[in-house]
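Let's study a protein:

___
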Amino acid sequence: MADPTPHPAPPKPPAAAAPTLPANPTVPPSLRILQYTGIPASVLTWRPRLPSRNWLIFFTLTGTLTGAWYYDRRECRRLQEAYKDRVRWMAEQKLGGPEDRPRRLRVYAAVWPESDEGGAKWFKKYVKPILHAAAHDYHIEIGHTHGALTRLLAQRIQSRRRQALGLEPLPPPSPIDPSVEDARDLAGGVALMGRHTLKEYLAGLAEGWSGALQASARDTDLPKRIDASLPAFPDDADTLPAVFVPSSEPALPALSPPTLAPLSGPPTFIPAHPPVLVIPYVQPLGFKQIPRMIGGFFNHRARVREGGDAALRLIFGTARPIEPPRENAEEDFPPLDEPLPAPEARAPQGGWADSELDAEDLIKSSFELVPSNIHQRRKDYYAALVPRLKTARELALGEREPSKEEVEKPPKTERELREEAVEREKRWRDELEGWGVARKGAGVRWKRWMDGLREYGEYPEELRVE
């Protein structure tokens, strides 16, 4: 019979004690002599160990990002020096005489939609160093507002047309022969920073060469339209009515969409014009473009390649005719008071008119709110203009004494307020015109006589930088 008494469980073996470092580790014999030099024993007995997990993550991320940044900037310097080496021999060539001047390029940089900057900084950072290494000169035109380059080109071309016909006096004589400057411009080239600059440039050519030579009536009619919308007060205080009751809702002067002036002999073929190069340039803006911005920070070498290739095309590229757009491309510039069709319903214009077309995908959707913002600013301005007119009238009639603030800073008179309104209307009109040119989905303003434009082709393959 089995013994019912339970036997006690056998004792567990003692757990192995964790290895511990001695409280006072001894100095290795090979380093004991250093104790007499004043080095503490804790330094001589120090044993390296791996950092904690958090420190390892921090060091890995920091080292990776720093290495990516350093590699990118090193490649930028290498690539730019390689591009300079391709053209340095040109700077060593001697000029033919004291009147010979280096080749000059004209660069146009319009402001990016909803931004205060254009491509001028990009050009000076990535293209200018190669041009300077090749001893090439350039003159840059910067549009600080939308449509500024369009108005500048149109006014410059129309002024030269009027001078050629004797409708405008010639400029004062200059030490430099104008024909020499014209020949220098034709021997140079034109660089356009981005598609938005291309659209403003072609709009300026269209308005300059196709517009009427007489002064535009829109500037002369604008003060009359404003006077018709505001309370009319003569400047003579004796003839002013005794009481002025301002309207609570002043009528807004009509802000009509821009239209080209009546044609006055448009050319059948574009006059002599230097070759044109559209340099890729975009400026990502908005929350959705943050990944693109971060990637661009570690990939500046791509911009160096784009700038270097553009510089080599400007220097070595041969001029070739552009590929004209389709036949009805002139109809793709809609009036400003008509909404654009949906993106899937818009057909590309084709040919050279679609250069850098993908860049328009980076324009913020809020850019379409420019007309409504202009309307709201005009409405607020004219609402605030009524009490200012009332104050100007009361002071002109002597109905009350000016306050202390009005004595220190006299308010504007009625004439000055009307001039201010005219200037604001011109500014709003120009802003609306510039928006109509640069808006997303609006085609370039094309005229059939522009088919004779030329563009820069590719440079020789042996000059390519790897």
Observations:
- The chain is about 40% helix and 5% strand.
